[in-house]
């Protein structure tokens, strides 16, 4: 962990080769830039990889989640149980449907939904009355009693939630189960691939993800009716048999273009290579940081048979000033980010629902101590060494 020169360390970088560049260039030699053979091939590659019947390419992971919420039958005033420790999209898509996100706190080790709290919340929400009120936001619920329709859980940082328990809970109360696996392509839960463990699963392909299409997402499901519905919604509500100017449903322009699909298809050909490279970078970090005082390295649950490394997030010990650490690391040329900032404390959520600090203490603690280090599959061991040495020096100086 020695360094004598300043290195340029990007926060994240996509892993692209001439295979991807040529795939995109090939599309530009055709007249087909939307809804062509590339999106069909990309979807088929996902079906093969995950062993699912349907894969539906869309223009973002957010769009994928939004369509899943609609396919779950969520309507205005309904409730969806979810997590406050996530990227805001997993909550926003519930709001897009006019529904109410109902938060439960998270497990302090994984950051995934706390199962005991989730089970109690589902029981209380379906019972109604005062039991339900303890889980609902202080305000912003509307004038009529809601109905719990779905659970939307997140595979945080590439680690699957405890899906067997969530599946049992959803089945017991006749709820739809949505898996936000946008950070977890390639992860495995008890030997099963992430994304196929709920009724509908989603993936995102932003440039910092395991594979990228620039912008893009994918829905996967074995539900024939839901798949047909979501395919129609992504294409301005056009159902099978509709002409270009006929629209059976109120839909959206959520299509994934051919250039992006070609890029994604090329990346899928390299998926195992991309996952192994990220695993190697994470292993370098783990080896160097596990002995560093004041730092907790990521925890891997026993149910996670393969971690898919989306980001590398450490937790600083209580009492360490994260802002000061970040500022000092910046002097070394090392960018870092808090990860995540609690959703319930975002200004628009506080204004609308009346959330306060202290409502979800575990989420808040993780949000205050979490620090994402530079991470991508193209990082070198020298760069990891540099980041770890800089962090060691900063913590020692503090």
Automatic annotation (TrEMBL):
GO terms for molecular function: transaminase activity. Its EC number is 2.6.1.-. The keyword Lyase does not apply. It comes from the Bacteria. Pfam families: DegT_DnrJ_EryC1. It is an enzyme of class 2 (transferase). Keywords: Aminotransferase, Pyridoxal phosphate, Transferase. Belongs to the DegT/DnrJ/EryC1 family. This is DegT/DnrJ/EryC1/StrS family aminotransferase.
